[in-house]
């Protein structure tokens, strides 16, 4: 026994010896040699960078941040006024659960590595291709810096690949001033624009015009911050405690010049896309004076990959790369597993043409001068209320009784059995009484009971005898006052939803593309920058007529949308600016853009809130000195007449309130990053 | 048998470590800090509302060095007092922010001009008094009366610091604007709760009067009538408080314009 053990240990000790040093590269590690040598390798490098890009599409939730998380997919619910949803995710955009910090530096490292290492492989590619790849590096870096700057203001500008292990001093990079940050973003976009091809080498790559379009968006943000920070208390600026650097806001002496510079850059970038990009608004099915065609055209444009309007698109492919927008934001009866994630508000509807309004600008539902006066107007069918609605609105929002997936969307808040004419259901529609609901009204709780509502669907439905038949109080699509899974506001979103009735709805079953940048936005960027420049008394470098450009751009969009055209030329003042802003609110709704626009316009905090809707609207209609809320439009059926009437009331189901203070215009820097670094500053006003 | 005892012992040895049998050697936080925020001139407590719109108390434990983050903020009670009975002992900086001249004032370049915050070694039970200069003084004039479910109250608003004093303290901070001194609004908060204030107000009945620009200037020291809105049901007991503020946010840049309050009064609706 002992002998065997000795022999065994001797034999195994022989097996452990060797003579060669292990200095060959392991085969399972991918190196620069493999990737930066050929276009095929570059595809892989780019695919990794693009998969980390902070794009906001179906897999972005404002409350959660850049998590690439498609759960509960909904758009416009973060206090933009476009829509609301039942869950806690429907809250003001005052920060993100996962701050865009760590992931940003990861991607920056990849971009910086490309910029620094690719020159070693210059001879492997044609001159143009080499330049394009290098340009992609700058484009990615600009994208990351821009995504961070609009969240935090000044950020650590990591413009080289950090080598480690290294001493702490060489790795710690403090936040730069906000002005330097925007200048770096401008520089990186310009470098990308100079280097990139007018058309990407492959589908999915960026190109010169993509960079120009995003540059115009970024510079509009920078210009707005420089200008509108001045309208917030304390000028919204401050120095970092550790570094003494102006990490948020602009110095009083440079703010005006900076805003002019950035607006001019935004304008010229957008103009270049307009004059040389070869893009145009999608009008494949559009026909003049044909509302039905104009509506169908705008429904189709969001899923048509051949659209000439698409500048930058995130594509999905079933079954390998999918999202779940239909699974979470479809109407109630289409639910799988959830529904009604995106319920548009009546405040949003009021931005559009085709409705009668009261003197205060809210939608007219009664014969009186406000919605608590007069009697309800009656309609034979719910769609009659919307018969003049702008086709664009109908393409974005599902109205009560409109067709979706070849079915009528049966949306009804309740049934009224009292005599007509019907007086307004509430005596007070002011913000202070927003928490009084239909189910608390005497007509519902009292006797005789004349108002029927349903807490839930199915057996939860109250019924009314009408023409010898039982009629459910609420429509099949809701709203139900105790079930937030149906519409909360009387509307469902239509934009982005798959319209094919045969297509299966479910988690990870959707493959519609998301348009990250389209030509309509470029037009609106040009228009907004033009008006801002005019107000600053500047003239553009290309000699174009600022206000004419703005007017043409807005009219082009309105023509396609089927909206009323402008009566004259847009003026170079706040009125003109608000025309462009309102158009932007309408056209780019449900595209993850509005929340940034509201931030850069600085119209979310109470003092600035009159401008919240892009146009001037009295904030006291929908907010107190802190919170604000949105309203729904609730259709009721009157059994005495067989007709419908509408009531516009603060969100009835799963009530949400929103709140914003000037502090929120700059997100908090993650506390642990501040605590562990001797150089990273927290926002000075926190 | 012997083997299994040995292996059990072996396993026990492996599982043990030097500190396994020692008790946690850090004391539970038991240091108490009680304080009150008072008007430096009159010695009267500065009344507030409990919440982030009221008086904020910020402690910073300094032994962590230069790169320290402040402790979680907490807020004064409506009567202007605050307390925290679960603090670790240590060397703290204590400061309060509210409707009064900031205790720590820095100029536009971040240079500290004046620092009235307190640095203290906390290790037992402490009571402190923070002396501040409030912006406004809000007083009841007589008792509120009830008519048809509405509360009618009379209040008087005066400045607690002179305009010159305010200017002397605030102007060096940069970007001074005479509009800072404007009284912007008077609030009448109504609530079922005795801790009535901005946070605990009932929006059905609370009311406000807003003033544009410096239109309130002539009304300083005058008796102002303010009436609640809506109709409070009969037989209820509510509490009311008035508050007023100027056009100056503290800390600067937060947009948080804090109110000065008077004391709550109980009102029975007959």
Q: What general outline of chain B do the C-alpha atoms trace?
A: globular
CA-based gyration radius of chain A:
28 Å
The portion of residues forming beta strands of chain A comes to 5-15%
Second-tier CATH architecture of the domain at 100-278 in chain A:
Alpha Horseshoe
**Overall pLDDT confidence of chain A:** 94
Number of E strands of chain A = 16
Stated plainly, the CATH topology of the domain at 100-278 in chain A is called: Serine Threonine Protein Phosphatase 5, Tetratricopeptide repeat
CATH class of the largest domain in chain B, please? Mainly Beta
Task: Give the helix level of chain A as a range of percent.
Answer: 25-40%
Chain-wise SSE layout:
The complex is a heterodimer of chains A (686) and B (270).
Chain A lengths: L1 H14 L16 H4 L3 H13 L31 E2 L17 H16 L9 H26 L15 H4 L6 H18 L12 H21 L26 H22 L14 H10 L9 E5 L10 H5 L13 E2 L1 H4 L32 H4 L5 H6 E2 L4 E2 L2 E2 L5 E3 L25 H4 L5 E2 L10 E4 L2 E4 L19 E2 L20 E5 H17 L10 H16 L12 H14 L6 H8 L25 E2 L2 E8 L4 E8 L7 E2 L11 H6 L10
Chain B lengths: L1 H14 L15 E9 L16 E6 L12 E2 L5 E7 L2 E8 L6 E3 L5 E4 L2 E5 L2 E8 L3 E5 L4 E3 L2 E10 L3 H8 L12 E9 L15 E4 L12 E5 L9 E10 L13 E2 L3 E4 L2
Parallel strand pairs in B: 1-9
Antiparallel strand pairs in B: 1-4, 2-3, 2-5, 5-8, 6-7, 10-12, 11-12, 12-15, 13-14, 13-16, 16-17, 16-18
Q: How would you sum up this structure in a few lines?
A:
The complex is a heterodimer of chains A (686) and B (270). Chain A is of the alpha+beta class and 686 residues long.
């Amino acid at each position: 026994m002992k002998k065997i053990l000795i022999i065994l240990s001797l034999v195994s000790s022989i097996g452990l010896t060797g003579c060669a040093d292990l200095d060959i590269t392991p085969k399972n590690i991918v190196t620069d040699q493999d990737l930066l040598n050929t276009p095929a390798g570059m595809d892989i490098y780019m695919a990794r960078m693009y998969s980390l890009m902070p794009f906001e599409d179906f897999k972005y939730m404002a409350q959660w941040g850049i998590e690439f998380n498609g759960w509960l997919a909904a758009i416009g619910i973060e206090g933009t006024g476009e829509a609301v949803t039942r869950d806690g995710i429907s809250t003001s955009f005052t920060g993100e659960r996962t701050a865009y910090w760590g992931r940003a530096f990861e991607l920056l490292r990849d971009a910086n590595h490309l910029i620094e290492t690719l020159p070693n492989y210059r001879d492997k590619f044609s001159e143009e291709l080499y330049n394009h790849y290098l340009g992609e590096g700058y484009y990615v870096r600009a994208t990351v810096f821009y995504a961070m700057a609009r969240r935090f203001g000044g950020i650590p500008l990591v413009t080289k690949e950090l080598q480690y292990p290294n001493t702490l001093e060489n790795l710690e990079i403090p936040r730069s001033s906000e002005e330097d940050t925007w200048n770096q973003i401008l520089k990186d976009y310009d470098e990308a624009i100079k280097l990139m091809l007018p058309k990407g080498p492959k589908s999915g790559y960026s190109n010169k015009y993509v960079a120009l379009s995003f540059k115009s968006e970024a510079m509009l943000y920078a210009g707005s911050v420089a200008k509108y920070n001045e309208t917030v208390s304390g000028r919204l600026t401050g120095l970092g405690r550790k570094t003494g650097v102006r990490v948020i806001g602009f110095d009083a002496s440079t703010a005006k010049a900076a805003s002019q510079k950035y607006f001019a850059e935004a304008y010229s970038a957008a103009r270049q896309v307009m004059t040389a990009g070869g893009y145009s608004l999608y009008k494949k099915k559009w026909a003049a004076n044909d509302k039905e065609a104009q509506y169908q055209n705008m429904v189709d444009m969001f899923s048509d990959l051949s659209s000439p309007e698409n500048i930058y698109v995130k594509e999905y492919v079933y079954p390998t790369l999918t999202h779940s927008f239909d699974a979470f934001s479809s109407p109630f009866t289409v639910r799988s597993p959830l529904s009604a994630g995106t319920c548009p508000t009546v405040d949003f509807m009021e931005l559009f043409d085709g409705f009668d309004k009261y003197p205060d600008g809210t939608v007219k539902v009664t014969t009186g001068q406000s919605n608590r006066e007069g009697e309800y107007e009656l309609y034979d069918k719910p769609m009659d209320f919307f018969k003049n609605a702008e086709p664009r609105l109908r393409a974005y929002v599902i109205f009560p009784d409109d067709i979706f997936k070849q079915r009528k969307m049966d949306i009804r808040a309740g049934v009224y059995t009292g005599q007509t004419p019907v007086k307004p259901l509430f005596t007070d529609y002011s913000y202070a009484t927003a928490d009084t609901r239909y189910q608390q009204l005497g007509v519902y709780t009292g006797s005789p009971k004349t108002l029927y509502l349903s807490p839930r669907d199915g057996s939860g439905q109250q019924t009314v005898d009408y023409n010898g038949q039982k009629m459910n109080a609420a429509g099949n699509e809701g709203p139900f006052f105790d079930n937030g899974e149906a519409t909360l506001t009387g509307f469902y979103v239509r934009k982005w939803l798959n319209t094919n009735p045969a297509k299966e709805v479910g988690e990870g079953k959707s493959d519609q593309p998301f348009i990250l940048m389209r030509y309509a936005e470029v037009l609106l960027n040009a228009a907004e920058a033009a008006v801002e420049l005019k107000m600053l008394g500047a003239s553009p470098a290309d000699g174009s007529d600022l206000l004419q450009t703005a007017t043409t751009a807005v009219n082009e969009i309105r023509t396609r949308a089927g909206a009323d055209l402008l009566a004259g030329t847009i003026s170079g003042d706040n009125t003109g600016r608000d025309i462009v802003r309102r158009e932007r609110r309408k056209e780019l709704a449900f595209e993850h853009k509005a929340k940034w626009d509201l931030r850069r316009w600085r119209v979310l905090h109470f003092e600035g809130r009159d401008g919240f809707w892009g146009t001037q609207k009295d904030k006291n209609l929908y907010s107190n000195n802190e919170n604000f809320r949105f309203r729904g439009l609730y259709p009721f059926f009157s059994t005495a007449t067989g007709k419908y009437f509408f009531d516009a009331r603060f969100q009835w189901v799963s009530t949400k309130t929103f709140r914003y203070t000037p502090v929120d215009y700059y997100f908090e820097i993650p506390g642990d990053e501040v605590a562990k670094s001797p150089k990273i500053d927290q926002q000075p006003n926190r | 048998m012997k083997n299994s005892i040995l292996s059990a012992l072996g396993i026990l040895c492996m599982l043990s470590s030097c500190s396994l049998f020692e008790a946690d050697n850090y004391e539970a936080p038991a240091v108490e800090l009680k304080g009150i925020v008072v008007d430096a001139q009159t010695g009267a407590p500065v009344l507030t509302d409990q919440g982030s719109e009221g008086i904020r108390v910020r402690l910073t434990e300094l032994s962590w060095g230069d790169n320290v983050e402040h402790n979680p903020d907490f807020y004064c009670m409506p009567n202007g007092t605050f307390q925290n009975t679960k603090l670790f002992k240590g060397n703290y900086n204590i400061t309060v922010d509210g409707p009064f001249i900031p205790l720590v004032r820095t100029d536009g370049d971040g240079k500290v001009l004046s620092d009235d915050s307190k640095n203290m070694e906390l290790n037992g039970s402490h009571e402190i008094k923070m002396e501040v200069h409030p912006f406004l003084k809000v007083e009841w004039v007589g008792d509120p009366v009830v008519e048809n479910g509405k509360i009618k109250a009379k209040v008087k608003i005066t400045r607690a610091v002179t305009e010159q004093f305010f200017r002397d303290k605030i102007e060096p901070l940069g970007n001074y604007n005479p509009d800072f001194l404007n009284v912007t609004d008077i609030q009448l908060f109504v609530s079922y709760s005795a801790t009535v204030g901005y946070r605990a107000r009932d929006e059905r009945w609370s009311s406000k009067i807003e003033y544009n620009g410096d239109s309130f200037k002539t009304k300083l020291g005058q008796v102002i009538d303010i009436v609640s809105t809506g109709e409070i049901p009969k037989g209820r007991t509510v509490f009311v408080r008035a508050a007023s503020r100027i056009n100056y946010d503290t800390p600067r840049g937060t947009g948080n314009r804090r109110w000065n309050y008077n004391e709550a009064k109980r009102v029975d609706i007959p």
